């Protein structure tokens, strides 16, 4: 659908709200130039040949962050359009937390919850999955791991059913495939849920997509009102350092965003000198104003 | 739940498999595109668009594996269905047959641009792809393409147009598609439907 200027104003409003939340949590915003010289470690982006060199326009911010901040422990966020081979991209807002101890995924999940709530989005769910659970479950049938992972991506159990493996193993994989609940018996997942302490967060071992660059825990954020995930994230590593983060799809969020704004003090501009003097004083105090014209 | 079914050759099998699984789905009447039944809704759409509807929010759909592959839609595919079986093949005029590896510089007409591109790129062969929306077998006949990649069921249409099947690109069958979010929000209902269809297939649909 063609986006109108109203849509872009809405996207900017959502971006500003999210910026406020991410800053409250201690994250610093990083802004990258739109065009970057081509490098194989940078994902996505639209290729551009200029001055006998290949470049990428608006590539994936996470891979840019991973390359630029590999020596630091840092909390960062970004709000940007991401292109993926075409001229029309996705608007994403996300955070990355690099160099903090393993198991620190609690924070990104809680940040995501507060970010969605700040947009007035209350009806959402976060499903958490684990690659490690599947790696462990396929430890003795490593030669069939690819079959199991591709079955997971399609959510089609038939290829697993056809494998020459013991029936008990198939039953174990079937239980994992259909597990969706709050107590999984996997300590790391159960503990994560306990600390996050939000009834909209579930453990779902069978429907969370196992993306390749994540190291263990992954999650998807979705709303019954939107047919596609509205965000997602997980644990990954930058060199030797553990990292975690998530992104939100701002266009999907704009369908859920209620746009409620804080009350604003209206000042008459009949006497512009005193109106703007008062407005300056209120803005310094953090109070929203509007000088009527 | 909302279902989207494909117009054309897969519609009959789709309605039948759903009915046997206990979902009395009615085909929308003439000029209607949506029908309601027992609180459910059925849409009938172009076969090529079914995965797109499912990816963007319709709960369930039935579509050919060729279309799912071509569209690369982000949907779950929990079941292969035992109808709509055919193949996607490379075909050429009888008198000008060469192997796919010798097709450098050839022009190939197809509805399946992505699958064709990937197929030749795996072979390391550079072809020009001519995207058409239907009656692809006409393209070599009128001299605007050297070969086609298209669905072959009995081979009758190919023969009638002086074409020969040179190589199979992929096997095709109908598939059940599920929206990724519906699988979570309607977990029980969707699993029940998948199991019921599975039983129907097991009993020899």
Keywords:
heterodimer; A: 293 residues; alpha+beta; BirA Bifunctional Protein, domain 2; 2 domains; 26% strand; B: 205 residues; alpha/beta; D-Maltodextrin-Binding Protein, domain 2; six-stranded mixed sheet; 32% helix; elongated
Question: What does it look like?
Answer:
- With 293 residues, chain A is of the alpha+beta class.
- Chain A folds into two domains: 5-263, Bira Bifunctional Protein, Domain 2 (BirA Bifunctional Protein, domain 2, 2-Layer Sandwich), CATH 3.30.930; 264-293, no CATH class.
- Chain A is 34% helix and 26% strand.
- Chain A is built from ten helices and 14 strands.
- Chain A has a nine-stranded mixed sheet, sandwiched between helices.
- In chain A, β3 (46-50) and β4 (53-57) form a beta hairpin.
- With 205 residues, chain B is α/β, with parallel strands linked by helices.
- Chain B has two domains: 2-84 and 173-202, 3-Layer(aba) Sandwich (D-Maltodextrin-Binding Protein, domain 2), CATH 3.40.190; 86-172, 3-Layer(aba) Sandwich (D-Maltodextrin-Binding Protein, domain 2), CATH 3.40.190.
- Chain B has eight helices and eleven strands.
- Chain B has helices at residues 11-20, 50-55, 65-71, 113-123, 138-141, 156-160, 180-185, 187-202; strands at 2-6, 34-37, 40-45, 60-64, 76-80, 86-93, 107-110, 128-131, 147-152, 163-172, 174-178.
- Chain B has a six-stranded mixed sheet with strand order 2-3-1-4-11-5.
- In chain B, β7, α4 (113-123) and β8 (128-131) form a beta-alpha-beta unit.
- Chains A and B meet through loops of A and β5 and α7 of B.
**CATH domain class name of the largest domain in chain A:** Alpha Beta
Number of domains in the coordinates of chain B? 2
| Strand residue percentage of chain B | 25-35%
Mean pLDDT of chain B: 91
- Per DSSP, the total helix count of chain B is 8
Which chains share the greatest interface? A-B, 19 and 20 residues
Multimeric state: heterodimer
* Alpha plus pi helix count of chain A: 10
Helical content class of chain B: 25-40%
């Amino acid at each position: 659908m063609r986006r109108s200027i109203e849509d872009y104003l809405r996207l900017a409003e959502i971006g500003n709200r999210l910026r406020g939340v991410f800053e409250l949590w201690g994250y610093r915003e990083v802004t990258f130039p739109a065009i970057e010289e081509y490098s194989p470690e940078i994902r996505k982006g639209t290729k551009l040949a200029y001055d006998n060199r290949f470049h990428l326009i608006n590539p994936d911010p996470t891979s840019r962050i991973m390359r630029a901040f590999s020596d630091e422990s840092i909390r960062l966020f970004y709000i940007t359009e991401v292109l993926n081979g075409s001229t029309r991209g996705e608007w994403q807002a996300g955070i990355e937390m690099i160099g903090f101890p393993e198991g620190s995924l609690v924070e990104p999940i809680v940040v995501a919850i507060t970010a969605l709530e700040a947009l007035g989005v209350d009806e959402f769910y976060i499903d958490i999955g684990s690659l490690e659970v599947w790696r462990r479950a396929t430890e003795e049938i490593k030669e069939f791991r690819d079959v199991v992972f591709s079955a997971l991506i399609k959510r089609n159990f038939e290829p697993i059913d056809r494998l020459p493996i013991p029936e008990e193993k198939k039953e174990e994989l079937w239980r994992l495939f259909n597990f969706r609940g709050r107590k999984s018996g996997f300590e790391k997942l159960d503990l994560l849920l306990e600390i996050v302490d939000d009834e909209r967060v579930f453990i779902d071992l069978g429907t969370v997509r196992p993306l390749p660059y994540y190291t263990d825990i992954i999650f998807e954020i979705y709303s019954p009102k939107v047919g596609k995930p509205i965000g997602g994230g997980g644990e990954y590593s930058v060199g030797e350092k553990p990292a975690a983060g998530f992104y939100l799809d701002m266009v999907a969020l704009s369908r859920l965003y209620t746009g409620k704004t804080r009350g604003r003090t209206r000042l008459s501009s009949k006497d512009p000198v005193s109106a703007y003097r008062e407005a300056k004083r209120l803005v310094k105090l953090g109070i929203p104003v509007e000088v009527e014209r | 739940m909302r279902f989207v079914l494909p117009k054309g050759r897969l519609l009959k099998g789709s309605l039948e498999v759903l009915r046997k699984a206990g979902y009395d789905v009615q085909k929308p009447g003439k000029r209607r595109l949506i029908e309601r039944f027992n609180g459910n809704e059925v849409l009938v759409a172009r076969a090529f668009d079914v995965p797109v509807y499912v990816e963007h929010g319709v709960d369930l759909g039935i579509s050919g594996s060729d279309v799912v592959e071509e569209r690369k839609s982000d949907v779950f595919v929990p079941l292969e269905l035992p109808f709509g079986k055919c193949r996607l093949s490379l075909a050429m005029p009888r008198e000008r047959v060469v192997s796919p590896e010798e097709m450098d510089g050839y022009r190939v007409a197809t509805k399946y641009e992505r699958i064709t591109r990937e197929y030749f790129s795996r072979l390391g062969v550079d072809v020009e792809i001519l995207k058409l929306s239907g009656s692809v077998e006409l393209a070599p006949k009128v001299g605007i393409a050297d070969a086609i990649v298209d669905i072959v069921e009995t081979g009758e249409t190919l023969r009638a147009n002086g074409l020969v099947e040179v190589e199979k690109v992929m096997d095709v069958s109908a598939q059940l598609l599920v929206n990724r979010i519906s699988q979570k929000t309607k977990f029980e209902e969707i699993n029940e439907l998948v199991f019921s269809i599975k039983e129907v297939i097991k009993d020899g649909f």
